[in-house]
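It is worth pausing here to work through a concrete case rather than discussing structure prediction in the abstract. The textbook approach is simple: state the sequence, then state the predicted structure, then interpret. We follow exactly that order.
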Amino acid sequence: MGYTIPRPEQPGHSVLAATFEYNAWANLKLLDYCAGLSDEQMRSSTVGGYGSIGATLGHLVYAEVDYVSRVNGKQPARPLPVGEWAGFEAMRDAVRWANEELLQLALSASGDTMVVETWPEGTVKYRLADLMVQAHSHAMEHRTQVAAIITSLGLEPPDTSAWAWMEARGAMEETLFARTGLMPPNDVDIPKMVINPPKQQAPKPDNSVIKWLLDSDPSVRWQVMSDLTGEPQEEVAAERARVATEGWGARLLAMQGADGSWAGAAWNRGWDSTMHVLSLLREMGLDPESEEARRAVGLVRDRVRWKGWDLDGTWRGQDFIGNPFFAGEVEPCINGQVAASGAYFGQDVQRIIDRLLVEQLPDGGWNCEAENGSKRSSFNTTIC
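Step two, the predicted structure:
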């Protein structure tokens, strides 16, 4: 599916090797930490992340293996199972294997070495160097997401910074004499680098902006209290609970029709349909377990339909009753938003997920125009 040039002898590759060694160290340290979490904690998630801690770790490690496979088709001796939890030991082995493979691929390449992927829809080419950048940035992004979930649980996440990696390796106690090879006199006290430099304080938000944000709707206020002012979790939870009974959230819930829909439609171009309102309520942080949320979402599940669309994706005409709302329709932009809201509110959206996975384009994204022949992803469709 791809190729690289043969590996040359490169004895002085410590800078390149260090980046891969750090990435593997950080991934392994995070896995070791999470192995001590409870099952309930592993199922925890937060707004804006990939998913639960377990799902994010699985995605991170599976992607590391996938980057290798995209280039040379290799898999670790113990391949990771698809669609199920692999276990911490298997994931640790996969991280070590992928790190070594990626390093060897990087050492074998020049700046213009190309990876070629051949799919039924066509061929995709890109630089191997760009794939290596993606591998590192992807891992860092998802480590950060897991750390955010751990923090939301009231725990201290592991320090996976490069400073911590250097300290763990004893790489921050070098002195002038060690660098030059000279030995100091016995009576000389050698100053050493500070192993734990004081952390730079993040700039504090402007108090006037904080005051303005707090003097608003509960849907804004609870997120400010959680993310900016660091209020106790019980106070944040109490404020979040008000989304269902006060302000914008309560107003949106009150506008739901007896047929379970908003604006009488599963989706429309007026931005006030069932899909649009559920997306807003999700982003506002309406508690999925609240009585108000369960009632509203239950009505959507039981009564709202995609008029005209059959479960096999066939258009049957406007008079056809159509799919249940959380079964989705055929438009990936719409289906993505329905799946996000459905998953947030605890609904079964597996049909949508299965369809979206089949519709993913070779370059990794989605495009609403794929049915019309487009072979490149759309940024807007993908982020939906």
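Step three, interpretation. The longest strand covers residues 114-119. The mean pLDDT is 84.
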